[in-house]
Amino acid sequence: ARLEETMIKFMEMQQQQLQQMQDQHLQYMKNSLARAKNMEAQLSHLAKQIADRQGGTFTTTTQTNPEEQNVVNDSNEECGESVEGVEKMRKKECPIDVV
C-alpha cells in the first residue's frame, strides 16, 4: 500500500510539472506570436514609407563632381571614365582613388 501511495504522489507531481511546462510553452508561443505581429506591423510601416517616397528617390541628393575630376588609381591611370577604364575596374585591375 505504501508503494502505491508513493507511486500515486510521484505521478501527481509529474502531472503538475507537465502542466506547468505546457503552460510556460503556451505563454512563450503567445509572446512569440505577439512579437511576430509587431514586427510585421513595423515592416509594413517601413514598406509604406518607402512606397510613399517621391518617385522612389532618396531623401538626400547627390552632387555632381564640381571640378570634373577623373577617377584615377595610385599610378595615375584613369579608371572609369573610358570604356577601357570601366573594363579595368570590372576586372579589379584598377583600384581607384579620387584626386
Shape: rod-shaped
- Roughly how many Å apart are the termini? 95 Å
With helices defined by DSSP (H or I, 4 residues minimum), what is the helix count?
2
Fraction of helical residues: 55-70%
Strand order of the largest sheet: 1-2
- Estimate nothing, just give the exact number of structural domains: 2
Helix/strand order, N-terminal first: HEHE
The radius of gyration is: 33 Å
Give the amount of beta strand, in percent: under 5%
Mean model confidence by pLDDT: 77
Q: What is the count of β-strands?
A: 2
Uncertain runs:
none
* Overall SS class: mainly alpha
Reported for the largest beta sheet, the result is: 2 strands, antiparallel
Keywords: Coiled coil
Coiled coil: 11-49
